[in-house]
Amino acid sequence: MMKILSTREMLKKAQREGYAVPAFNIHNLETLEVVVETAAELKSPVILAGTPSTIAYAGGEFIVAMAEAAAEKYNIPIAIHLDHYEVVDEIKHFVDLGFKSTMIDASHETFEKNIEIVKEVVEYAHKYDATVEAELGRLGGQEDDLIVDEKDTKYTNPKQAKEYVEKTGIDSLAVAIGTAHGLYMGEAKLDLDRLKEIRDMVDVPLVLHGASDVPDELVKKAISLGICKVNVATDLKIPFSDAVKKYFTENPDANDPRKYMAPGKEAMKKVVAHKIIICGSNGKA
Ligand code: 13P
Asked: Which of 45, 51, 267, 276 has the most other CB atoms within 10 Å of its CB?
């Protein structure tokens, strides 16, 4: 029987073997079910990510309980991950509750302050065998309540990244190399040379945020250059919602959630499966 895991072994294995573990943002029972069911069918390890507003909406206890039930039902490595948390005390609370993986996002702070905040989280999380991801540089776009204007985005500096990893003791590093949360105006462009430089300077697994709406070939290329965790939210939300909207258009009197949620789940499932294949994590559970 599998338990809720940290991302430590999951990401190290991905790093050794040259694939990425997908981190899917989930929101409720339905989206969590789709993700774990599909990952189990494809024998993929999987990370269930929740932003602060998702955890506030669904309830941390409920997410933990649902993920535990999933881990008991399916024999694949499952982690639940706090995505873009900024408040240290909230992270501590959820680590106490059973989350074994967290991101502390202090990317809006100065370099020194960012290190100080992240270090505190690392010290706490490691006592409980939980893993910590942090971001250096800053992604643009919108992720739930987190909105970063394009002028405030900053690419990760490879030399600083090395110092950052050493001083904070983080388990994985989120890089800013041109992706943004949400959809892109035009084509997504990634600074792959920068990614290579970062990979040469640091040894922890690297994380790609904002992977929705990025061409598959580009995501694969980033994985071949050292990305070990790929975060996807928007590309799941859109097909889920579109399918539910279509169902209501065709069945305006519908009122049974078990019926109107089903097409949303089905549409989302196809995307989850596709992303797992792009990550190359199928068969790696
Ligand atoms: P997207 O919504 O662009 O897929 O971003 C997801 C993400 O990076 C979660 O942290």
From this structure: 276
Which residues are identified as catalytic?
A: 83
Give CA–CA dist 113/168, Å, rounded.
11
pLDDT in tens, 5-32: 999 999 999 999 999 999 999 999 999 9
Residue whose C-alpha is closest to residue 143's, from 94, 241, 210? 210
Report the CATH number at residue 225: 3.20.20.70
Give the whole-angstrom CA distance, residue 244 versus residue 281: 29
| Confidence bin at 1 (pLDDT 50/70/90) | low
- Its pTM stands at 0.96
What letter does residue 167 receive in the DSSP assignment?
Answer: H
Of all atoms in ligand 1, which is nearest to the CA of residue 213? Answer: 3
How does the average pLDDT of the chain come out, rounded? 96
Residue 233 lies in a domain: yes
What are the beta bridge partners of residue 207? Answer: 174, 229
1 lies in some domain: no
Scanning the chain, the segments in alpha helix (DSSP H) are 8-17, 29-41, 52-58, 60-73, 88-97, 111-127, 158-168, 192-201, 216-224, 234-250, 257-260, 262-279
- Is 83 near ligand 1, meaning CB less than 6 Å away? yes
